């Protein structure tokens, strides 16, 4: 009863929201995509690789933004329940057929990363590691893999078959800020995927000895007929963790570009100074030009007046000359006014509505076809395409028509 009271109504941390769990509530492990670590935009479905597929495929909820960015979340068969530790759990066994070995080996060679979600917290880990043959104990496998001078045949490919989830939680009242009227932010669930053998990744959090979490499968070993995928779960109450701990940086996730405000301000000030200097120079040049034109025109007018003109003609030598004579030209219609203007306002509205969506539709059709051909998760499903078409027809088309009619009736 004491344990139930301690674990009851606790909270798992998520990206921006918090979900409340009671003891033994199921916590879903959601698989998302796999991708090369060097190319975050090249994403594929998680089960493109022959991982343990769920008995019943259950897709997780997606919003439109997730679908457009290539997320394809699917609930896995990991049995994780709130507050229940799992020292060693079996997921499934996969036969090491030549096709399976080749698929995993190619993924490991290209440094593939898989992504999962635990209560909307994204986690990632390497599919496996390439270990140089006859490498001395303790040598960093990452350094070995970065050695571009080594031949590919000198590597053994090891498949990660065990995943360890180390999840921290907090009481719901504390997480929601109801303790002594003091706002206390909810902590984040931590998660780890063990590095293998002598591999050392300084930026990957490893809380339990890797040797206790199972031995990776050597894909180069022909005697290995099957691989057992396993997992373990550890729950810890961490009341002292802050909100910032929820968004701990995962080095395997895509980099988020930071805005360098100082550089932006510096560039803005530089542009303003250049505009000011150019304006001063242009005004001085124009002023000198206008003055010189006026002097020449007045001198010529006086000479013509004295030589040819009769004083009774009423020639005014002080009338405006030079630049002053052309200041009103901006209000005159050009000689070929309708060359680039549409005379039929209906077709003008139609052209305005298609001039940008038309080329975009062609580019999208090509890219989506390529994504479908390569079985990439970046390919939009049919339902998402229908949603985009409905948005175009119900939002863009009416606004274009209304704007065209309003512009035509405006004088």
TrEMBL record:
GO biological process terms, semicolon-separated: protein localization to membrane
Classification via Pfam families: EMP70 (PF02990)
Keyword Lipoprotein belongs to the record: no
Keywords: Membrane, Signal, Transmembrane, Transmembrane helix
Annotated InterPro entries: EMP70
A single cellular component GO annotation: membrane
Topology of the protein relative to the lipid bilayer: Multi-pass membrane protein
Transmembrane region(s): 261-286, 345-367, 379-406
Subcellular location per the Swiss-Prot or TrEMBL entry: Membrane
Highest taxon listed in the record's lineage: Eukaryota
Main subcellular location of this protein, as a coarse class: membrane
UniProt key word Magnesium: no
Family according to the record: Belongs to the nonaspanin (TM9SF) (TC 9.A.2) family.
PANTHER family according to UniProt: TRANSMEMBRANE 9 SUPERFAMILY MEMBER 1, TRANSMEMBRANE 9 SUPERFAMILY PROTEIN
Protein name: Transmembrane 9 superfamily member
Organism name: Aphanomyces astaci
């Amino acid at each position: 009863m004491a344990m139930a009271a301690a674990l009851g109504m606790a909270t798992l941390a998520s990206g921006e929201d918090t979900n409340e769990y009671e003891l033994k509530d199921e916590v879903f492990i959601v698989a998302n995509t796999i991708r090369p670590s060097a190319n975050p935009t090249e994403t594929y479905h998680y089960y493109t690789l022959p991982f343990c597929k769920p008995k019943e495929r259950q897709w997780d909820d997606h919003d439109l933004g997730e679908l457009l960015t290539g997320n394809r979340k699917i609930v896995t068969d990991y049995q994780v329940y709130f507050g229940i530790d799992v020292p060693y759990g079996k997921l499934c066994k996969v036969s090491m057929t030549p096709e399976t070995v080749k698929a995993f080996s190619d993924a490991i060679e290209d440094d593939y990363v898989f992504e999962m979600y635990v209560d909307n917290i994204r986690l990632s880990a390497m599919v496996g590691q390439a270990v140089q043959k006859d490498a001395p104990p303790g040598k960093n496998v990452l350094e070995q893999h970065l050695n571009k001078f080594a031949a590919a045949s000198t590597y053994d490919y090891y498949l990660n078959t065990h995943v360890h989830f180390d999840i921290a939680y907090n009481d719901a009242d504390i997480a929601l800020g109801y303790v002594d009227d003091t706002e206390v932010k909810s902590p984040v669930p931590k998660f780890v995927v063990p590095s293998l053998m002598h591999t050392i990744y300084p930026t990957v959090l490893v809380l339990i000895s890797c040797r206790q979490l199972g031995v990776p499968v050597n894909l180069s070993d022909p005697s290995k007929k099957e691989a057992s995928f396993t997992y373990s779960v550890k729950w810890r109450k961490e009341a002292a963790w802050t909100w910032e701990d929820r968004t701990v940086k995962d080095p395997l996730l895509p980099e988020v570009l930071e805005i360098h405000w100082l550089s932006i301000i510096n560039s803005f000030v530089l542009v303003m100074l250049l505009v000011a200097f150019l304006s001063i120079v242009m005004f001085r040049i124009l002023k000198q030009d206008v003055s010189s034109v006026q002097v020449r025109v007045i001198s010529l007018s006086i000479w013509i007046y004295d030589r040819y003109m009769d004083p009774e003609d009423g020639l005014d030598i002080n009338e405006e000359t030079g630049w002053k004579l052309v200041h009103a030209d901006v209000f005159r219609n050009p000689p070929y006014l309708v060359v680039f203007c549409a005379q039929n306002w209906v077709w003008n509205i139609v052209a305005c509505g298609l001039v940008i969506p038309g080329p975009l539709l062609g580019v999208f059709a090509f890219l989506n076809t390529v994504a479908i051909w390569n079985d990439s998760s970046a390919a939009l499903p049919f339902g998402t395409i229908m949603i985009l078409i409905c948005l175009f027809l119900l939002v863009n088309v009416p606004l274009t028509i209304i704007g065209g009619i309003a512009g035509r009736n405006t004088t």
